[in-house]
Amino acid sequence: MFLDDYFRQYGLVAIFCVVAVAVPVSMMLMSWGMSRVGLRPRAPSAVKAETYECGMEAIGGKWNLFNFRYYMFAILFVIFDVEVIFLYPWATKFLSLELFALIEMAVFVGILLIGWAYAWRKRDLEWG
Amino acid sequence: MNAHDLYVVSPYLAMAGAAALVIILDLFLPVSGRGGRGRGLLPYAAFLLLAGPFVLSLIQFYDLGDAANLVRGGDAGSDGAEASILLGSLSVDRFALFFNFLVTGAAALVVLASTEYVRLMPRFQGEYFGLLLFSATGMMLLAAATELITIYVALELTTLPLAALGAFLLNGRSSEAGIKFLIIGAISSALMLYGMALVFGFTGSTQLSDISSAVARAGGGGAFGNYALLVGLVLLVAGFGFKISAAPFQMWVPDVYEGAPTPVVAFLSVASKAAGFAVLLRVMFTGFFDVSLDWAVLMAALAAASMTIGNVVAIAQSNIRRLFGYSTIAHAGYLLVGVAAGVGTAQSGPETPVFASIGPDSVLFYLGAYTAANLTAFFAIAAIGQRVGGDRISDYAGLVTRSPGLAIILALALIALIGVPPTGIFIAKLYVFTAAVDSGLAWLAIVGVVNSAVSAYYYVRIIRVMFLGQPPAIYQDGGARSARSAAPWAAMGLAAAALVFMGVAPGFVMGAAGAAVRALGV
User: Which of A6, A111, A117 is closest, CB to CB, to B27?
Assistant: First the structure.
């Protein structure tokens, strides 16, 4: 039967969901239960409450400013990067390709040049 | 790729090229120059550049002749030309060209109407027109796409610039509109992609023609004959439902309509909706006609829900742009009636669907009339907003004493949206409901007529406030009163003229719609 097969495959997913919920819930319940019967000591301290940051001591608050102009350079780098990725194989095979490939690359570079000209005229290449 | 392919895609290239040119022009024009020249030329440059795609579409229209499609067959021709790479991905037929003209026309009017509006934004005027034209490119491609991946790419090209445009005013409401449009658009894209994956898994192809034959082979039996197809098609409809702003995918509409720049809303409400209906019609009728008896019920239900939700909630609105948001949901419902009415049943047996071309015909005509009406209304709202400095309906009190021209034009658009002669939407509604009755959906036609009556209440309320309301003693200054330009008036006048023209002499657009629907080749 088509329907049974179809839903049986979802049975695995259902089991996975049940396990995924049951494991963390049981762990928390266990911890809570042990504190009730007195097996789990309770000794909070300032060090324990600190943010865990890969073993480093956290500096400053979480609402600090950072300079997001880097993203502009990242985008410009992507333009340049993609250009090179396509130019390189094109250049190695240039002799066997015909005039059509030359025109096509000119179109491609032309489109990218619009992006460069845009960034240049909008003063995104200047720092300060 | 051969020379003929380039010719086939030339309107789309011209539109994208126009967008790029506008952005480049913006970079090299002087910032303000003498007496505001320089940047002020941008809208007119964009308007003139729109002649490119328009003329190329016109050439293709006459070149098409008796042929169904400009894209030539796949085998390398006898003249040694390379095989077309467009085969299966695009169909440049009368259907696509109909929407080319609709989108180009709407874009041209929106550009004209924006000349006064863009003065509100000192920066990014070039980007404004550039993004508008990029979005128009996507809409034109959407009407021609016959392959799922192409449809997806065209849809994203339509949606992403509109999201950026929605956030253009740099205030809270506008940002909210842009972000909401972006996020809900992304969710619906994800749903649609999932649907496409299921359809591809079931049929083994992304091309609508192959999908159609695979669906025909699968035969009937049960809902859609197959669960994968059922889920896939429902998810596809969810994705398209976002674009056409039909219930229950309408949550973004009022917020976006309230916050986004008014000319952008005008463009969004007509061109984006038209492109959404274009792709819906093509996918449903070309790809999935063999299971149409199943999805016609779905369309009818969506239509009834959209009409009712849109009209009932619109009654309670006090902001005119929110009101138009709900009004556009209701109109998506009327249009969906036409989609559902495209499927009739044969006399011989009730199990085989028959293509009732009057349904899609009426949808295309309705789209034309609705485009004219809504553009008129939004251009008037944009101009009024700049004069009275607000979008609440109470701000419009006694407008007729202050700006009689704008009040009369807005009243004309509102009367049209109710569906009163002599305007295009009267004919369109008549057409849609006739199609519904013909296809055995009399109940849906009744729901539609009742809804039209309900809609009259809130449309007429605005007219009453404008003409009979007490004007405020002291007018607020809308900020842009000194800017007097003929271009927005020209845009308003052209849209209103088109609206009345379609009501008085509907034959021209009706004929074009009929020819377009025949090109679907169901």
Answer: A117
A60-110 pLDDT, tens digit per residue, is 777 877 777 778 888 888 888 888 888 888 888 888 887 888 888 899 899
> In angstroms, what CA-CA distances link A95 with A105, A107, B1, B55?
14, 19, 20, 39
Q: Report residue B77's pLDDT band, with 50, 70 and 90 as the boundaries.
A: very low
* Total structural domains within chain B: 1
Q: Which residues contact B203 (CB under 8 A, 6 or more apart)?
A: B210, B211, B214, B215
- ipTM reported for the complex, 2 dp: 0.70
Query: Which of B20, B27, B227 has the CB atom closest to A6's CB atom?
Result: B227
- Chain A residue numbers with beta carbons less than 8 Å from the beta carbon of B24 are 114, 117
Interchain proximity B24–A122, CB inside 8 Å? no
Do B9 and B90 form a contact (C-beta atoms < 8 A)? yes
Name the residue in chain B with its Cα closest to that of A118. B27
Question: Which domain range does residue B509 map to?
Answer: 3-518
- pTM > 0.90: yes or no: no
* SS3 sequence of B376-438: HHHHHHHHHHHHHCCCEHHHHCCHHHHCHHHHHHHHHHHHHHHCCCCCHHHHHHHHHHHHHHH
Q: How far is B175 from chain A (nearest CA, A)?
A: 19
Distance CA B305, CA B448 (A): 11
* Every domain of chain A and the residues it spans: 1-64, 70-121
pLDDT at B2 over 90: no
* Chain A residues contacting B via beta carbons under 8 Å: 2-3, 6, 111, 114, 117-118, 121-122
Which is nearest to B287 in space by CA: B179, B170, B195, B371?
A: B195
